[in-house]
Amino acid sequence: MAVSKTILNKAEISSSFSFHIFLVTFVTFFIHRRTFKSKRLILDDNREEKIMKTKIAGIVVCMMLIAVVLPVAGTINGGAYNESNSNIPIIPKEPSISPGDYFRFIRVGWHIRTYRIHIPQSYDEMNPMPLVISVHGFTSNSMSNEIMTGLSEKADEEGFIAVYPNGATDMLFLMFSRILLGRYGRYWNAGFCCGNAVERDIDDVGFIRALIENLQKNINIDSNRIYVTGMSNGGMMSHRLGAEFSEIIAAIAPVTGTIGGRYRDGPLYIIPDPEHPVSVIIFHGMKDPLVPYEGSTNFISVNESVSFWVEHNNCDTIPQINISESGNIIIRTYTNGNNDTEVVFYTFVNGGHEWFGSDYFPSSESSATDLIWDFFTKHPK
C-alpha cells in the first residue's frame, strides 16, 4: 500500500519555505556581490586566489542551505505524493480558486517544478473554461513569457486560463550558474534542444502531463479546449507536446519552432507520430537567425515541420494562399483534415526570431497572440 507523506499546515509551509528561499537568495546575492568586488581589487596581487576562495565558500554555504530547503520545498502546496509512483504528484483539490495571478510549485519525481497561472475575472468554478499553456523560450522564464506574449490580458478579454510553466533548472545548478557565471537559464527538453535539459534528459513531457492533470483536479477546465503555444525552444516543445498528448490537446501554436533536429553531433530527432489529429498554427520569420527558416545542421526546416502535421492530420496537400497588402505576410492554410483539423502557416518575410506583434517586437503588422487565440476558438477537440 502506498504511504503518503504528512500534509503540513499551509501557513507553516508558506512561512518556512518563504524564509528559506529568502535566506538562500540573500546569501547568493551577497556572495555574488563579494565576488564582483573582489574582481575590482586591481592592486591586490592575490586577487585571483581571493576570488576563487570566495566562490568555493559560496558553493559550500549554498549546498548546506539546499539540504535545509529541499525537504521543505517537497511539501509545498500542502501536497502529498504517492510513494508507489513519485513521478505523479498528488495535490488535494482546493475547494475554490479566486481570479488572480499565482506562482505554484509541484513535485515531479526528484524535481520541484514551478509555474505561473492567471485566472481571469470571468472565471466561474461552475462553468468549464479553456486552458492555454504557454511555454517560454531558451534561457527565458514564466514571468518574461507572460509579459512578452500578453496572454494574461487576452485571457481577461476572452475568458480562458493562462498557464506559464518554467523549464527545468534544479536549485543546485541555478545557484552555481548564478554565482560562477553571473546568470541562470531555463531550458526545455524538446528531444533535441535545448542545453542542460537535453543533456540531463529532463522529463519535461512528464512534467506537463502532471501539470495538466493537477490543474484539472483543482480548476474547472474544459477538457475539449486544452491548447499549447510557445516560442523558440518553447515552440519546439509545443510541437512535441502536440504529438505526445494528441489525445488531450486540441491545437498547438508553435512560434519560431521546429519538429526536430540534432543536439550537437547527436542523431537526428523528430517528434513522435501523433495518434490523434491536432490542429496547428505555425509562425516563422524568413530572417530568423537562430532557428533558420530553411533549416540547418541542427534544425529541420519549417516547411518540413508544416508537412509533418499536414500529413498526420490528413489535410489537403495544396494550401489556400493569402498574402497581406504589404507582401510581408504569407498565409498558407491546409484544410479538410481528420476531425475538422487544419494546419495554418504564417510566414513573415521580414520577420526574425520573435513573438510577432508583441511590445518586444512592435514592427510586426500582425499580433501572434490575437491570431493564436482566434485559431484556438475555432478548434476544440
Brief write-up:
By secondary structure, the protein is α/β, with parallel strands linked by helices. The protein has helices at 10-39, 47-73, 142-149, 151-158, 171-181, 195-199, 204-218, 233-244, 302-313, 368-377; strands spanning 80-81, 89-90, 100-108, 111-119, 129-135, 161-165, 221-231, 251-255, 260-261, 269-270, 279-285, 320-323, 329-334, 343-348. The radius of gyration is 22 Å and the shape is globular.
The parts where pLDDT drops under 50 for at least 5 residues are 1-55, 57-62, 64-95, 179-183
Q: Give the end-to-end Cα distance, rounded to a whole number of Å.
A: 37 Å
State which percent range the strand residues make up: 15-25%
Number of distinct beta strands: 14
Q: What top-tier CATH class of the largest domain fits best?
A: Alpha Beta
* Helical/strand content category: alpha/beta
CATH topology of the largest domain: Rossmann fold
Shape: globular
Proportion in helices:
25-40%
Give me the side-by-side strand order of the main sheet: 3-4-6-5-7-8-11-14-13-12
Can you give keywords for this protein?
381 residues, alpha/beta, Rossmann fold, 10-stranded mixed beta sheet, 10 helices, 20% strand, globular
Polypeptide structure, described:
- The chain contains ten helices and 14 strands.
- It has 381 residues and is an alpha/beta fold.
- The protein has two domains: 71 residues; 282 residues, Alpha/Beta hydrolase fold, catalytic domain (Rossmann fold, 3-Layer(aba) Sandwich), CATH 3.40.50.1820.
- The strands form three sheets. It has a ten-stranded mixed β-sheet, with helices on both faces. The chain has a two-stranded antiparallel sheet with strand order 1-2. A two-stranded antiparallel ribbon has the order 9-10.
- A hairpin with a 7-residue loop joins strand 9 and strand 10.
- The longest helix has 30 residues.
- 40% of the residues are buried.
